[in-house]
Design a protein that fits this description.
The protein is mainly alpha-helical and about 180 residues long. The chain has a single domain, classed as Lysozyme (Orthogonal Bundle). It has eight helices and two strands; from the N terminus they run ααααββαααα. It has helices spanning about 5-20, 45-60, 65-80, 85, 120-125, 130-145, 150-155, 165-180; strands spanning about 105-110, 115. A two-stranded antiparallel ribbon has the order 1-2. A hairpin with a 4-residue loop joins strand 1 (about 105-110) and strand 2. The radius of gyration is 21 Å and the shape is globular. It starts with a helix and ends in a 6-residue tail after the last helix.
């Protein structure tokens, strides 16, 4: 191959790499690895953009702590499957822990936070992913500190005083899978 042909190949490769970098579609690092609810009328692009905003809010709230990011992804997956409607506060008949007396939702957002856990979220006109992510991160941090392990943090998040409540086992297993390791926390 002569120098001119080699130069053309190198130029073509550089153009392809540059063109690929122009792809504006967000890349999901965490939420592409968990089940996400399908929302009627939401395009794949809109869904990816919405999930990208959620991932950014999680990363900010967790201050980049991968252990906490994984825990937050687990909680959102179990609580709402990242449903667009639940995120927006539009809950179905059997969603959002409805009050048996009034029928009104008691839990808001993708983490399904109750007022005592996140009053600021409940005071907003509509759920906000940044506010709910900060509340979720703080609750998980507190639960982990109180119980000394992530299983207990998940149990605490769910409202249990028992750090060894069974709810934490399945959630901890998912967290470890997301982090790419086995074993206990």
């Amino acid at each position: 191959m002569n120098l001119r042909a080699l130069s053309l190949v190198a130029f073509a490769l550089a153009v392809l790499i540059w063109a690929a970098s122009l792809d504006a579609t967000p890349r999901l690092s965490w939420l592409s690895r968990v089940p996400v609810a399908r929302s009627e009328g939401e395009s794949k692009e809109a869904r990816t953009e919405r999930l990208s905003r959620i991932e950014s809010a999680i990363t900010r709230a967790a201050r980049g702590d991968r252990e906490l990011i994984a825990a937050m992804v687990v909680v959102g997956t179990f609580e709402s499957h990242w449903s667009r409607d639940i995120q927006a506060g539009r809950c179905g008949k059997h969603q959002c822990d409805r009050d048996p007396k009034t029928g009104k939702p008691r839990a808001l957002g993708v983490y399904q936070l109750w007022r005592p856990a996140c009053a600021k979220l409940h005071d907003l006109p509509k759920p906000d992913i940044d506010v709910s992510s900060v509340c979720a991160a703080n609750l998980l941090r507190f639960g982990r500190k109180r119980c000394g392990h992530w299983r207990g943090a998940f149990a605490s998040f769910a409202g249990s005083l028992d750090c060894d409540h069974p709810i934490g086992m399945k959630r901890e297993a998912m967290r470890l899978r997301l982090l790419g390791r086995g074993g206990a926390s």
